[in-house]
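cache lookup: miss for this entity combination. No prior model stored, computing from scratch. Input as submitted by user K.M.:
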Amino acid sequence: MTRLILTRLLQAAAVCAVVATSVFVLLQYAPGDPFAASLDGTDVPPSVRAEWRARYGFDLPPTERFTRWAGALAHGQLGYAPSQHRAVSAVLADAIPRTLLLVGVALALGFALGVLIGLLQARHRGRWPDRAIGALTLGGVAMPEFLLGLLAMTWLGARWRLFPVAGLVSEGDVAAWPMWERLFDHLWHLALPAGVLAISVAARVARHQRAALLGVLSEDFIRTARSKGLGEWAVLWRHALPNAIGPVLALLGLALPSLVGGAVLIEKIFGWPGMGLTLFDALLARDYPLILAATLLATLMAVVARTLTDIVAELVAPRRVRTS
Amino acid sequence: MRRLVLVLLCLAAACRGRDATGASGGTLIVSAGADAETLFPPLAMGSQGRAVIELLYDKLADIGPALNTLGDAGFVPRLAQRWEWSPDSLTITFHLDPRASWHDGRAVTARDVQYAFRVWTDSAVGAAQRSSLAAVDSIATPDSLTARVHYRVRTPEQFYALVYTLIPLPAHRLEALPDTALHDAPEMRAPVGSGPFRFVSWTPRARLELAANDAYYRGRPRLDGVVFSVAAQGATVAAKLFSGEADFLEQLSPPDFAQLAAHADVRAQPYAGFDYGFMQFNTRDPRNGARPHPLFGDLALRRALTMAVDRATLVRSAFDTLARTAIGPFSRTQWTADTTLSGIAFDSRGAAELLDSLGWRIGKDGIFRERHGRQLAFSILVPASSRPRQAAAVLLQAQFKSAGARVSLEQVDFNAFLDKAQRGSFDALMGGMRTTPSPRGVRDVWGSPAPGRGAQNSGRWSNATFDVHVDSALAATSTDAVRAQFRVAYQAAIDDAPAIWLYEPRMFAGVHRRLNVGTLRPDAWWSGVVNWSIDPSQRLPRDRRAASTP
Amino acid sequence: MAARTWRRLLDDRPARAAAAVLACASLAALLAPWISGYDPTLQPDPVTLRLVPPSWQHLMGTDPYSRDVLSRLLHGARVSLGVAAGSMLLAATLGTALGALAAVVGGWVDSFVSGLVDVLIAVPRLLIVVALVATFGALSPWWLVVLLGGTGWLTTARIVRAELRDNLQREYVLAARALGATKWRITWQHLLPAVAPQVAVAAALALAAVVPLEAALSFVGLGVQPPLPSWGNILLDGADYLTSAWWLVVFPVTAITCTVGAALVLADRLRAAIAGEEQAS
């Protein structure tokens, strides 16, 4: 276990270093800088933009800029984000909790739902409920998330007004509400974006879970359990699932980066300014310090998530059980 | 499960709706497509930032409803109660309103005006509109309520340039900080202003809240507060208005209009627009700026291509009735606009004949024209962030095809677009200009590339007649003289076809029916917010605000 | 063994249905210039024929520029499926090559390739593509193939490396090597064909991943350039008219969902066939 954690930590460090360098090198070729858009107007002479570039070191040679940034990073300073006029740490401090909440809730919900659906399918394998649910999960995986989000926002939000269209909290006298009401309001705003992501996750998890369960159900120890007279649900829940959940957990760890990526459009549509949207906007604004810091952090989060899911998988379904 | 949620929601709503009446004036929620990048006045360029800043801060005087920029006709007193001109017009003395105060209680003094001027003109601050204040030499403060502005030179718009740009800043709060540290100082993320609304909170990229200034010297605004609610996706911005989560939207797009019919509580309010869109030709070779463009260096070809475009159909298709055909390098709302100018009319036969006479003949494929083995082909640079420009570009592409030109579109993000435009690496681009009340911007955008002019002339178009008459216009002192000079200049620009003038969008704001809104000023829809009100009988639960804390 | 796996697949009904769907889509894409009634870029009348609902003249209606949606869908299939197929092939080839390299050569090459895979897997793919598009500007479909293929080989490489490493330890391989056959020869002649079904699974999954990615890219305006139609393009035009012009969204979404769904079913059944074959042997 400790060896796993240690190797993963080393991996994380190496990965982050490589990603940071690559992103930096790549961005050298990107035209533009963060000041172009904000300084565009009939009254703005190019000399003003040149001044801003000079002030933030955008006219330095790339190698020098990189060493400066890396040095600052070693001292724990993430730098300044010109496109947002505030420190990078402030930007990330705002964005990370929102993404963690969104992705966390979506993953948890999707995972739970997916496992249950997979179990349901395994219970009725081969019969029409299995096929019907299978078609639904197929649709859930095949449909692009952003489209699901747009449809949900337009119909459930704007037309039928069941959920808020966008934003983090409601308008009005929010500060005066009791704690439970504020929490509920925040969750109500989270419902649509997290729900859309959760559907996507659940569909994938359900398909993998079903396959894993069916794979396990043909094993000897299952036959032994059945011959002892255990009911089908008991067999599934107590014997099949613990052995089948490992691969699904591992899948979750691998799926995190694509979830963060897919969340970009969901964050954009539902006005939930998290890490994905921040990174996306920073990329388009050529805001190097923010891009580098955000990419590093996203990578770190992905590696940590993978390690955590691997640890959990190991705890829940140790290898020796799975190979029996 | 859903029923439980609905019950809980009803309970929550009922609890919130407890106190819907009362003396409070309601809250205006503006659905915004972008966040205010900064609240530091010298650096605020986007309309979002300007809206917030002009609600937080008052200027010395406000431009009149006629948007006149010559002399001081029509200007309405704000922080400056009255002003006097010296006989030689090189000095204007502003007398500040003794009742004007900052949100922290301190009085607005002449020192604040002087400090603001210093900050604005400090090159280390990098204020975007520094050049507007170039004619001002210094500001003296004979006493705490008198600011004497000394000009280096007389110009017809000297009053407008100073008053429209310069926003007095609270010197007592800011002067301790070095100028370069101002823009990201904590003070600037919770600014203290002198305007009708004071700052409450700002969640970047999400929402920005302002509350009514009870001590506002011209009378407390009728609204309790204003909230700017940000959404990054165009569809979401409109959806918030339609779902009742917002009251106001600056501009309804053509697809939004289709949805208006389905939502009875939202109406469209028209106001004059200040924008115009065009397709600009690059008159220089993108690979070598010293040489003329192989295609567009030739006036005849530019005119031929302009003739080939049916602008009326293009505007009708892209905007339905929500835009008019542009005439020239100006917006009809500008006071120097002239609708009698003669443009290059749509004439597909004439265009074909002209192209034939230039040697561009239909090639072997029967579609595209060729000359000396080269096809008539070019690319149009389009910013992916602007749907109207994208739509116009796609329509133009088809129209050029029927004229025999092979056009490809290059869609890039806005940053890359600006970069390429500035470096001149494009054949043609889809441009859009938001004009200001003053017509002087036309010199920067369409004037010949030379020191002091043409800084934004991406196409590097140069025309001596245009330059001379624009200069004369900007030096003339009577409205008739200015208009006459601009007439000649505009006509020269239209005839020389540096661009195809395409559309002038009509502005329609999306307004919730419970909101009483006066006329919307084209350059600043927010200028009347201090007078907006919400009918007490139509308050919503979300109008309640927390008890104001100073 | 691989041959038997393929045969199992052919006998499988869902797999046949899925393959048929994909074949239909590919056929429609290939024959697009001949079967679509209109030129997909033709704007006959951008004012009066704008946003016409489905009718006999336009089976899937027209878009905001009066272009026929059905023709655009068919031509868009060329681009979307072409990009997907191209990137799938590139990803499969790259993945197999790198996975084989890592397994056969071993040592530092193995560490390098595995490390590279670990790095790239941690970064969200959409953002990589956005970064590259922001850097290099508007992309032609060929470059999209390179971009998407170049970021999609990771799972294939992992699978190939794992399988080859396992098999290279098997008895019959060691015996063959003792008789003088090189590792490469064995890999090429026996092991790679054996691992082909799993590569096919990864390829089908790669296809299923690329189509929505291209749609997402076009949705933010950074994908295929007009007037070239792609399914994502049509969606972008239609996103503004979600409630009024339903045909702009329903048809491309159905196309995307069916194609991706078919690829996923194929991958599933192939996996089942592999598992079935492993059990039987």
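stored under new cache key. The two ends of chain A are 21 Å apart (CA to CA).
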